[in-house]
Amino acid sequence: MIQEIADRIQTGLAGKSFDGSLKFDCGEDGVIVLADNQATTQDRDTACTIRLSTENLKKLLAGKLNPMTGVMMGKLKLSGDMAVAMKLGQLLK
Questions:
Q1: Residue 37: what pLDDT?
Q2: Order of strands, edge to edge, in the sheet holding 77-80?
Q3: C-beta atoms surrounding 60 within 10 Å
Q4: Nearest 5°: CA angle at 54, between 48 and 60?
Q5: CA distance 93 to 63
């Protein structure tokens, strides 16, 4: 499941640039790391980490979960460099 999501993100990155490093931490389901214009399931340190469920990650990427609303409702937990998280919002458009 996580690998499929990472593959879709990688496809979506084509022709776009993401400056920074960000990790989606889905707990026991695994992680997706965005860094160097790559989406991988290899865990590593990143500038920003977003902790959320796999279900909420799918909603976020589909545009069905607003990042700010998700944070306020406790569905997303951010740590690290918030500027990197803000860049993600532009990438998802």
A1: 87
A2: 38-40, 31-35, 21-25, 48-51, 77-80
A3: 20
A4: 65
A5: 8
pLDDT (0 to 100) of residue 34:
94
Look at the chain and report how many structural domains it folds into.
Answer: 1
How much is the pTM?
0.92
Distance CA 18, CA 85 (A): 11
Distances (CA, A) of 16 to 3, 6, 49, 55, 83: 20, 15, 21, 25, 18
Instruction: Give the span between the Cα atoms of 72 and 34, in whole angstroms.
Output: 23
Which CATH number fits the domain that encloses residue 37? 3.30.1050.10
18: domain range? 2-91
Tokens standing for 32? 């997706």
Residue pLDDT, tens place only, 16-67: 888 889 999 999 999 999 998 899 999 999 999 999 999 999 999 999 998 8
